[in-house]
Write the structure tokens for this entry.
Amino acid sequence: MLFNSLKFALFFPCVTAGYFILPHRLRNLWLLGCSYLFYMCWNPRYALLMLASTAITWAAGMAMKNAGKARKKRVLALAVALNLAILFLFKYAGFVLDNINAVRHALGLQSVFTGFQLLLPVGISFYIFQAVGYAADVYRGEVEPETSFLRYALFVSFFPQLVAGPIERSRNMLPQFREVHHFDYQRFRSGLVQMLWGYIQKLVIADRLALLVDGVYANLAQQGTVSLLFAAVFFAVQLYCDFSSYSDIAIGAARIMGFDLMRNFNSPYLSLSLGEFWNRWHISLSTWLRDNVYILLGGNRKGTLHTCLNLLAVFLVSGIWHGAAWTYVVWGGLHGLWMAASRLSQNLRTSVCKALHIDRQGKLHRFLCWLLTFVFVSGALVIFRADSLSQAMQFYRGLLHWSAMPFVGGFEALGMDRADFVVSCLAVAALFVCDWLRCKKGPLTPQLLAKPVALQWAVLLAGILLVVVFGMYGEGYVEKPFIYFQF
């Protein structure tokens, strides 16, 4: 069930009404049933995988209760291994076999296990990381093992953030499932505003930008430099709006029911360095990798070279997490190499700025840092978006081979008319302005709700009108899936 579907427009009010009508002792059971129904709308059988991951990590948590350190370590290792085995089988086994067969073919050997392919369960990387994170938290003593299987199963499957995050932490969510929540009008308004902003990002911005991006990638050989530049920038913004919109709708929906999910994005495209970017982008994954991979490898405690290797390893894991393709591995590796190079050159860059009397807090220096960061991030996303490494190289070659021709065959050849292009450019500009205001003044939703009621309603109605008039609904209203569903 998609957030941008008519089914969800009926599902969510019914779930929320039922939650507040039922007595407290039945509410978690109601949410658990609704969450599994939400997930089973894609493929009912794959709910068994989520249940298996849930049972494994819950049992691991109970087994670690009052256990010695050695036993805890063995239990954690087994729980992680079983969960990663599930993830590997459904997400990576086909990719590994394809590469083995490619090597065997190059050596003149016969292929093995040809045609192996399983349907990728929606959101499997998200709920498995969330479940494994709980087991790691219990091992570190950050949370007590959850004795209620029902409550823990709800933590893993909570429908607002089940399919595309945020990847929640047990210390944040489990206590909230024990609380009694009453309907709160202020939370209701705040949640609706955040959901509306999510729908604007998805329907008005992301899905419209996809018209040009998809058109360019479908016909790279005929594109000029200008159209390729627009495609690179538009995809960077499309990915951000598409993913951030899901998080905003999830956070807003949960807030209406009384739950607080963690913030997943914080104006990432205003970052002045790649490190800052990753502190602002997909925050739930970044912090998960920091706590469960980077620190486990030693973090920055064993010298600069070891720190750089740890950074590279973390970003390779991030790339592999995103998908079973070499494009994601290379994308993650590029980020890791840039982060390592930044760490290695830190003292040199400081010395150069001091010797040249460059004010590192000056507007020009900050602008250049922002521009370099944005160019790298959006340039690397070319590989992320490409169907293959060869297609990505074709894209880069097109950028280097200058051509002033803006759009071959006009806008219509890309599936986007001139009006859509103008709306897209205005929407991108408005997005950056909103992010800039958010950085300067803090979250905008509380500020809006502090204004006079007439102004609040005027802004809300304007937002609704924006979605109704400029939203991309598709012919016959075929809703467009969120990009991160494939991960």
